[in-house]
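Work Package 3 (structural annotation) set out to generate three-dimensional models for the target panel prioritized at the project kickoff. During this period the team completed the workflow that converts sequence records into discrete structure tokens, so that structures can be stored uniformly alongside our sequence database. As a representative example, we reproduce one entry of 568 residues exactly as it appears in the project archive.
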Amino acid sequence: MVDSDLLVIITDCGSTTTKARAFRKGNDRWKYIGRGEAPTTVEEPVADVTIGVKNALLELEEAIGHPLGSYKYLSTSSAGGGLQMIVMGGVKKISLQSAERAALGAGAIILDSFSVDDPRDDHERISSIKHLKPDIVLISGGTDGGANYFPLYNAEILRGANPKPRFGDSLKVPVVYAGNTDIASEIDRLLQDICDVHLVGNVRSILERENVEPARDAIHELFLSHVMSHSPGYKKLMSMVHSPILPTPTAVGNIIKKYSENHNKSCLCVDIGGATTDIFSMFRGKDQFVFNRTVSANFGMSYSIAYVLLEAGLQNVLRWLPVEVKEVRNRIRNKMIRPTTLPQAMDELWIEQAMCREALRLSFDHHRSLAVSLSGITKRRTIGDLFKQEEEMLVDLMKLDCVIGSGGVISHAPDRKFAALMLLDGFALEGVTELFVDDSFLLPHLGVFAEINEEAAFEVLEFDCLKPIGTTVAPKFKAKDGTPLAQVFFNGSFVGEVIAGSLEFLKLSKSEGRLEVIPRSTKVNVSGIPGEKVVKQVSSPDLYLDGRNRPLLKIGNETHKLMRELSC
């Protein structure tokens, strides 16, 4: 029997699949030793999440070749659609935006958002809330001692809707109030007979400061005490674990934040699934790293793939196909009808990867729109200026050190070069960026593992989880096609040159070494400062020299040629 201190089993109860992973302490370090997967059983007719967990553990035992014995057990969950919320605020670009960041940071999918500058009528708002059945509602609005109309109006709308929860129809929907504290008691009085009201600190007590942690903590506690405890089988699961169950996105966010801080790297992570695409980012702010997470609920690779096609447009999908493919629109629709099917031919793979690029592009646009600072709010302004406040984008690709890709289409690409190109194209990367994949889907597991043993989680992350798949060099420039843009050196030796209008793949002599990129002129930017060189340690022999101008509106023959070459 294995000592429980030396064996940790972690499950991630997803919407469709429950993934069990085993980690063992060896002589030198903690290691990932095996996996087991089974369908999630939170829905009818089984309606007990622990059945899927037990089936996944049986598969895990078979994979490692012996009974598990004694172990510590942890879990994350997004089963049943994960944590689903409605967010209500005052002005869309002020209190509502802060409330959305609080909800997203707690691992929620935002079903709908309501602000006072929302064009919908009262009856449309009420109808939407009634229909959606949120797990939790978050209300914000007004600074402390300031406006009280916004939160009171939203409370009246919520009272008119009288929402019912997804689980436990006899229970009241939890409401977290994080607005003007002067009227907190009045909000409680308005809603207490139909909702379970929780009063926390204001997310925007003053305009110049955002305080999302109290709301985020309250949401997490309610996720455990209300959503989890009343979901089918979760009371039993909660009695099995040795640490609180985390929402899957929260766990992923935890490990990404710790990774960025430990390595002093700005990081972008994407988890692209069948129905949603989650993006996490850590970028350096003025004094510290700033974390943001967004979920694009309709940009997935199977269940919502037709919506990606609708939003992107057929022509944007076709531009990524290196060969002519017939019936593209119908093939995409068939994928939505049969979401579990996998590409069986090269043209099907091209379509899937084209759709991945567009899902990444659309989700990244959404992420950038929310990952903004509160710049400008300390300036002297009129009331009208508040509704058009200036924002500073926090996502600066020139300052991005690494990208981590996860999700079936990326992690299970038949060649990692395909995964690298999807990340390069989908995010339209700039500067010098390292690329990694989570090819065993360990990020959620390691996020909750880090809650009890951070050192062990990081040993597995570094050695068994993050696999380097390449480095991209993509200058910003103004030059004609064919113009030399930047010279590239590896361990002191010249290896290639970025040419305007081209895309080239190079295989370096070693996996690790010193990469140096020297612009040809002050009109070429690879670092954020025109003309400044970049020196980085890299960990993959694959190098992508990208001389295509941004934005990537038209994809030329050079891109298609490289895609065909890499497929051989």
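Confidence is low (pLDDT under 50) at residues 375-390.
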